[in-house]
Records
---
Amino acid sequence: MRLVFAGTPDFAATALKALLGTHHTVVGVYSQPDRPAGRGRKLMPSPVKQVALEASIPVFQPESLKTDEAQRELADLEPDVMIVAAYGLILPKAVLSIPVHGCLNIHASLLPRWRGAAPIQRAIAAGDDETGITIMQMDEGLDTGAMLLKTLTAIDEDDTGGSLHDRLADFGGKAIVDALKLLEKGELRGETQNDELACYARKLSKEEGHIDWSQDALAIERLIRAFNPWPGTYTDLEQQRVRIHEAKALADDSRKPPGTVIRREREGIDVACGAGTLRITRLQLPGARAQSVNDLINGGKELLMPGQELN
């Protein structure tokens, strides 16, 4: 089949690579316009664009797909299917109807559980036991189309946003290849979503990473794992911002006010929470690299001492 692929970040690039290993022909790739990145703020191509260029596939980077010109450009490619993964642009109805078999989306949750921009991180933060990939027939709604194929994976207790992202990216590549096999056989069937089971996975923000110590320790631990590596979590010690990279919830309760450091040992720094205790095991001080608590103590800095309060 003639495929058009639309995607931007690493998650989508993994799926594009999987499609390039099939007998299908990717006749065009759509991706977000190049953005400035790095210290020099030079314009950088997206991961999807880089894969497309290496494979000598024509790349299109319109600011919008709502114009007649952009839609004619897509129609001229005569696609059988358009594959969409974390593209970043809304596909209007006119675009959805151009490919012979419509547009298939690689969505990183078990729909209808999490719809929206950040399903991977929201699933971890919410304490879900499992998540997965849903291949969905796109319609005009936000992740509301018929479910075509699902792949499940458990969320491990040490999963982070980064580890789960990488696993689901691989699953997404395999799932879209399987979905196209079923489509060719005429065996790809859609299942309507139950809207009452849907949650909205809103976009992540750096402000959300500010730890609220009045929360219970397990909820804080899940937030730290979900927001690792981006946007990260942090707390303030007087005038210093301390980034928290790894922590573990303990059942121990303390009578100290939430945010109070109650223990500082090489295996971790324990902080009182609204319920339970959080043991910080890896952190980052201003102007320094991430380090273990053991290395912090070896460095001799008398920070995060028992009795100090974080906020």
---
Amino acid sequence: MIDVVVLFFLFGLAAGLLRSELKLPVALYESLSVFLLVAIGLKGGQGLASQALVPLLPQLLAVVVLGLVLTLIAFLILQYIGRFSRADASSMAAHYGSVSVATFAVGVNWLMTRDIPFESQMTIFLAVMEVPAILVGIVLMRGVSRQTRWGALAHEALLGKGVTLLLGGMFIGWAAGPDGLAPIKPLFFDLFKGVLALFLLEMGLIVSHQMDELKKRGLFILSFAILMPLLGAVLGIGCGILLGLSLGGVTLLATLAASASYIAVPATMRLAIPEANPVISLAAVLGVTFPFNILIGIPLYHRWASYFIGVAG
């Protein structure tokens, strides 16, 4: 049976394609984003309160390397096969080397609905994997020079709204622990799925607006936006198995590796690489990769993870 939150996404997509007047207030969309980021951070922090942090450092290094590899692969494909300009290839590669909070949230919900456990440090992986791709994308475009405003770019990448909310929620969850979080659990934990459903309704509306741009960009964008997530998922599964993660953890890491950023990276790329056309990246990420991942990708990655863990075992 298809998940109810995905039905909300399809509802928004259909309403947008049919030119409905349905539109959520901008302030509500912003509020839903804040809620989801804080809720995910709290949940991850609650899990971290029960384990030591030092043993996680090798895992964090591994997922950073995973993000860097994905960025470089995407750049090479876009520039040498897709014949993109260096600016567009660098910017779009950064999108695909980074990760999507909404896709992660859908993946978490998918596993929770099926009572499949996963490691609490996955939220840290989410926060850590947002940043490296941004820096690599800038280096691919600019190289390393004295003119690069590394301070401003690092501030934008490390202290952007998404990363700040995730890390802040995680710290509060870690500091408070399960008992301390109990008073706010009805709001941030019990309502998570309902808020995610409303968020995906708006995402469906946004995706519907990218369809015209996709038609203009042709077959390469469509192929890249599907094949790149599949490649990312395979690499994510391999990394998760090497790290010794559970089936749920491997599925979530594959989902992260297959996802692409549409919030933090576009905002940073506009500052760092103004020559790049943001419409191309957003059309691929939002028009193809995001719906592909939540409709087909996550169940597929879980099946692949089950198979490869069985082979590795």
---
Amino acid sequence: MKHARCIFDEGEHQWFAIVRDPDKPGYIIDTNEYIIRSGAELLLCDPGGIEVFPAVFSALCQVCDPQALKAVFASHQDPDIVSSLALWLEFNPDLKCYTSRLWTSFLPHFGGCAETFKSIPDEGIEIDLGSTTLHALPAHYLHSSGNFHLYDPKAKILFSGDVGAAMLPEGQDDLFVEDFDQHIRYAEGFHKRWMGSEKAKNQWCDRVAMLDVDMLCPQHGAIYRGKDVHRFIDWFRELEVGVASN
């Protein structure tokens, strides 16, 4: 069973990380989901696949009123990101899904209708949640041709989708990166193969380096915090990506 762990708490503004399901079948990749609460409204980042919906829903109910869930944010189109959409819509048919304009005609294959989707233009948008404004930032070609990350300037948290992801071995289930040098080897192969553009990578590094970020939260693996945020950006900038191994 997954559990929701609070990673930022400033009264009416909170972030929860839903991580690590010991009951998950080994053939399914592990995923992180994040809840943002501002006042009476919730947004769920990358709600996950069909198979993890019961665990994610249960974890959300541990810390929040599920009726307050206003929207989900899908960083891109993959099944581990948002194939659970139909189940979330069954719970709340009025739920909105923010995603790249490229995917608003593909994601309805997972569920929903034209009114469900909030199309994000390539340059990004601002998303109002309660008393907070979140920023959907372009991260195109970093795993997907239409890809967005979500920045919360109040909490100084960047939800980074698959950027920063690490394929951790069994037994390494820390919520935060505790030893960057040991951790980053589990991220290297993934980033080399799944990030498709050197130009896009460098643009992302330039953009994110200018933000005030205390935590960088990927969809797989552990969370980077403090000085490890910029250590990751520097490491990523130097890494050659878009190179497939034979």
---
Amino acid sequence: MRVQDIMSQSLVTVSSDRSVRAAIELMHRMRIGSLPVVDDGWLVGIVTSRDVRGAHPNRLVADVMRVDVVTVSAESSLWEAKELLERHGIERLVVVERDSPVGIVTKSRLYAEIGKHVDGLTGLERAEFLQRKAAELLKQDQEIAVIFLDLDDFGVIDKEYGHVFGDEILMLVAKTLKELLADEGECLCRYAGDEFAVVTTAPLDEAKQLALRMVTALRTKNWPRGVKVTGSAGVAGGRRQLGRQTGNEIHTVSDLINMASLASTAAKKDKKQVVVAGKVELTEEVP
């Protein structure tokens, strides 16, 4: 999802030569807390209710506006906008196209939308966040690896004990996997149903070992009611440098996720714990 999908397009602006009184009246009438300042179609500043508070009403907007406007493009992702808001400690971003303002995105609107992309059951981000995170790491010229973990025969637990108990297991699976990850450089998401995925900046060999620790942790954990939970993992990555194309990071990420997913399917089919895309089976267990 992009900023353009949630921004307010009914943009109310003011010119720098208007009075503070006019700006206050406009904000009150439109029930908004800020006005992009636009001269001849160009964004030259922003004035907020805080900026005009205490200012003499006869002063000009140019005297009280801030010129260091933080902007975002309409094509930016919601997470890119979120990072801008948090980095600058502000409540809204002016959306621009070709240096002209086309909308406003507020912190409350943005956070409400991002909240929809967090899995309500496990508290993990969903697949879209992982894809965005992986693409950002590639843009930063970092190598990445993707681990795709699919629980084995999880439907049997749902059928035998019910979906409420199955949901409890999924929450415990998410907690167990998250405890294995480093605080930085690794991101876990609930990809779909009983599928989980990790993107990591660790080298491929370390990613393979992490995948093995994940499936081993599931297999050796004491689960409620004595049920058995196992998973099969696929790993892809560590060899993208030559084939990488700048500006096409999303395609590269999709390719990695697809390869890791297929590798996990191969692992499940062949009853192996971890399979690396294009590589041989990893059989060593990690305590």
